[in-house]
Specification:
The chain is built from 9 helices and 24 strands. Strand 22 and strand 23 form a beta hairpin. Helix 4 crosses helix 5, helix 6 runs antiparallel to helix 7 and helix 8 packs antiparallel against helix 9.
């Protein structure tokens, strides 16, 4: 593996080294060698006791060669007398070609390099729960902020004498996450039509009577594990249509959780959520060339990546195992009304599932 561990969950998992600068890692049946720049050597030795750490100077590289990761990789492979390597599909093409020109066979792995990464150990579950609890604290603060706002004559929410915007709430969430030693990226506070796009971050003033989707997914700065939590709220009274949508999404989440347990395929969990929505009259399709209804999967894995396996989607044939950590997040999206999504992160247990950090569900705030 070649790259920055903080940008590569597999590298971080295999090395345990939290670095923004690139490294090279060779794994030979569990015996791992990590090549780092000289300035990172002492820290890597201290933080990675189960990995053999090598300074690039010890590889005998020239100054010019030390500037090229392909030279690090090639010299390590020659030193270890390795003639064939297996790499992930995202392995840097330039490095792969350099290795091949030097006579090293490069084979792309079909699937994950570390499939065992999806079944979380006890210490990993504690780390994810810590990030998830940070999301809960931030979510509560965001909901309190919206609940404390007043409603202007034009319907725009006002907080401390000025219009309350998606950006204001996002900054408040960011501050709380930093206090919890976490960071958020592209956090979602999307109101009205913005909320009808599942990954729109949202912008501008928040409006009463419209759904506000708040999606908080923090990464812990110390251990790198993520959390993921979504709630949808309306400031003031919601319309009957929005209430019906919200109750349908809550029922869909309950239906998905009712079948979630070891041995069940991810597709079966998604199907349960989809049936619950369809039985309440919410069908998925297209309007004016845009997808509407339940337009995404029911969930995804969470760990050192915010989106990893296993997935809970219509084509997911992975059978769930105890130790899998997944989100359960059905949603409905209609441009005319907005969007509604409810998401919790759970761990699959031998008996079923357990929410890693409970958070109350409030819809109408008045």
């Amino acid at each position: 593996m070649v790259g920055a561990p903080l940008d590569s969950p597999d590298l971080l998992y295999a090395s345990g080294f939290r670095a923004v600068d690139p490294v090279v890692l060779l794994d030979r049946g569990g015996a791992r060698t990590l090549v780092v720049a000289p300035m990172e050597y002492s820290r890597a030795v201290r933080e990675c006791p189960r990995v053999n750490v090598v300074d690039t100077k010890l590889l005998g590289l020239s100054r010019r060669q030390r500037a090229r990761l392909s030279s690090w990789a090639l010299r390590l492979l020659r030193r270890e007398r390795v003639a064939c390597v297996h790499v992930a599909g995202a392995f840097p093409l330039g490095v792969a070609r350099r290795l091949e020109r030097a006579g090293v066979r490069v084979r792309i792995v079909d699937g994950a390099l570390y499939p065992e990464r999806l079944v979380k150990r006890a210490e990993e579950l504690r780390a994810i729960a810590e990030s998830q609890q940070a999301a809960v604290i931030a979510m509560r603060g965001a909901v309190r902020m919206i609940a404390a706002s007043s409603i202007g004559q034009d319907g725009v929410l006002r907080f401390e004498g000025k219009p309350l915007t998606a950006e204001d709430v996002r900054r408040a969430i960011d501050r709380v996450l930093l206090e919890q030693d976490c960071v958020g990226r592209d956090l979602i506070v999307a109101c009205g039509e913005h909320a009808a796009d599942p990954h729109a971050v949202g912008e501008g003033p928040l409006v009463a009577g419209r759904p506000i989707v708040i999606d908080v997914f923090p990464q812990h700065r110390r251990h790198g594990y993520w959390g993921d939590l979504t709630r949808t709220v309306v400031r003031g009274r919601a319309s009957p249509e929005l209430r019906r949508m919200y109750q349908a999404v809550r029922a869909a989440q309950a239906a998905a959780l009712a079948v979630l347990r070891p041995g069940v395929k991810g597709a079966a969990v998604h199907a349960a959520a989809a049936r619950a929505l369809e039985s309440r009259g919410f069908r998925t399709g297209a309007e004016d060339g845009r997808g509407v209804g339940f337009i995404h999967g029911t969930g995804h894995g969470v760990g050192l990546a915010i989106h990893e396996g296993p997935t809970l989607g219509p084509s997911s044939d992975t059978r769930l195992r105890a130790g899998h950590v997944v989100t359960v997040e059905p949603g409905l999206y209609y441009p005319r009304l907005g969007g509604i999504r409810i998401e919790d992160t759970v761990v699959v247990t031998p008996q079923g599932w357990r929410i890693l950090a409970p958070c109350e569900k409030r819809f109408e705030l008045y």
